[in-house]
Structure formats: structure tokens, C-alpha cells
Amino acid sequence: MLLTLIIPFYNRADFLPRTLRSLDAVNLRGVELLLVDDGSTDASATLCRDYLSKRAARGEETGEARLISMSHAGASAARNAGLRQARGQWVYFFDSDDTLSPDFFTDALQVLAPQPEALDVLACVNTLQLPDGTRMQRYSRCSASLADQLLTVPLCTQSMMLRTDFLRRIGGWNEALTIWLDWELGVRALLHGARVSWMRGKTYHTIYRHAASITGSGFAPAYNRIAATLHCVWQQLLAMPAAAPAAVPQPAPLLLPSTASFHLTLPMRPADSRCRCLVAYALRTAIVAGTLRREHAAEASLNLLRTTRQAIATHLHVLHRALVGATLTAIYHYVRLGGRGAWLLPRLLLLPFIR
Questions:
Q1: CA-CA distance, 282 to 151, in Å (whole number)?
Q2: pTM
Q3: In a 3-state reduction of DSSP, which class is residue 6?
Q4: Alpha helices, DSSP H only, in 3-134?
Q5: Residues 6+ apart with CB under 8 A from 136
Q6: What distance in Å separates the CA atoms of residue 263 and residue 247, rounded to the nearest whole number?
Q7: End-to-end CA gap in the chain
Q8: I need a surface site. Which of 44, 71, 143, 188 has the fewest CB within 10 A?
Q9: Distance CA 268, CA 203 (A)
Q10: Nearest residue to 202 (alpha-carbon basis) of 161, 284, 153, 142
Q11: Span 64-105, pLDDT tens digits
Q12: Rounded to an integer, what distance in angstroms lies between the CA atom of residue 322 and that of residue 147?
């Protein structure tokens, strides 16, 4: 079975060497590599051509590798350009400033090869490295719940490999958006009934947080783009049936060979009602609003909080309005004052009771 690895880049000459070096330690047998140049004006494309030339000269037994060039059109367009040319049954998107785990594709192939059509998303947990060098496991609930995706984003770019036909069927990456692209894609995948499973008990790639990343400078400078993504997701949620949908059929749990140092289990997704998802969405916007206020974007912060309150009041049951409204206010002020982990208590104490 063939997998496709797509790495889009735009003016990443300072970071690409680290990412490309990490590829040298990865077993790419059975993996097609597509490097997508989104119209770079620095040395990024030259670095990738040199890498591909050296790779070809080594004569290693790996999948096909090539460089795709395009005019600058943004991350989603670059990912979709790779998706259109992908020949693998499964496709995996990786950022050009992070490093791949050497054993990720080997482990993924062990899981997928026996039944490649049984899942739509195969997810993993990654390592986060902060600017000061601190390394930690990126928090993830290993969940396939839509409400969890809305609030905590377990399905992000480098935590999910997608079945190629499924991703094409749901429209690929949304080229109208320029930020929080993976959050929206994860939401859309779950709304389309994605069958999700997690490789648990092991962490994979290293994701570097730095000032040059998309949200590295904070929420305030990117607020208009964040607002566009929030609005897009809100419209998708409003299109959900008001009643809880029937649970999407899920495959039986998958297990790796007993000699493996970890196992894979399938979390059964609860039937998330639209009400529960709208509340999860509102909790996330309260966190965004509090962050904007902390970054001194008071007008944007208050407008977002006010708009969210008005929107959910129209769609929530009367009994939920006061409780959710008070929770939004508490989260907003907690985040505004510098609090961290604002999603945790509402996730544990509020969402389970919203139906």
C-alpha cells in the first residue's frame, strides 16, 4: 500500500534544512514524497531540489519523490495541489518547520495495510517543543468527538493521516481560510462521519513553536482571519440536525502485533447533539476573546464575546442559557487575567450535561 507525504512550504529556508534532515532518518519505503513550493522567493525551492538530487544519488529503495511548483496561493491551496497529484491511498500533510518521527510511517503501515478502507482518519500524538527548549507531549484527548474537536482540537495537521478518497470527497482543504485550517478540516471531517482511530501509548513528531509560525505573534494581529474561520465553522454547525445524529458506524478496535511497544484503540464517538457542539464552540470563542483582551485588543475581544452570546442564545434551551452564559464570562475573565487550561473544567463539568 502506498502512502503520500505532502510538505508544502513558502519562504521557509531557515527551517527546511531541519525538516529535510529528519526525512533521512525516516523509513520512506512505500511512501510517495511531494514537496510543494507555494511560490517561495527565498532559497527554499533550491534547498528542496538539492535534497531530492542527493536522495536520488543515494539510490535508496524509497517511494517516488518530486517537487511541485506553483504561484503563491496560500497553505490550503498548496496542500490541495499536492492532494490532486497524490497517488497514495492515504495522505499525510506535514509542516516545513517541524521534524518527522523515524518510525511513524512504519507503524502507520502496520495498522493500515490489513484493512486500508476500514478508517478515514488515523491519528497520533506529537511532541511540542517550546522556544526555550522545553519538550512536552502535545495535549490530546485521543477523541473522535466533534465537541472535543471544537474545544481542544485533537485533530490537527500533524496528528491526522487521512484516507485520500475521503479527503477528496469532503472537499480537501478550505482555500477561503488562511488560519486554523486544521481545526476547520477536523470539524468538517467529523461532520461527514469520519471513522477515526488513534495510535496510543507513543508520541511521534516534534512540533516547534516559534515566532515565525502562523499564530506565533498572538491572536490580535490575526484576528480578522481567525474570525473568518470561526464564522465558517459556525455555519457548518448550524447546518447540523437539531437532534442528536445516529452514531456513525465504527470498525472494530485495531491492534498492532503483540511485539509492538504500543497499541492502537478506537474511541467510540458519542452522538454529539448540535446543542452540545454549539456550547463547545462558544467555550472556544470565549477563550479567544479572553486572549484578545489580554493582548490589548479590547474592542475585538468584546465584539466577539457579545456576538457569541447573541448567537448561542438563539439556539440554546432556556435552561442552558444562564449556565452557559455564566461559564463564558468566567472563562473570558480567567483567560484575560493570564489563566491557562481554560478548557478543562467546562469540558469536564459542563459539556457532559449538555444534550
A1: 9
A2: 0.91
A3: strand
A4: 16-24, 44-58, 75-85, 104-112
A5: 127, 128, 130
A6: 24
A7: 41
A8: 71
A9: 21
A10: 142
A11: 999 999 999 999 999 999 999 999 999 999 999 999 999 999
A12: 20
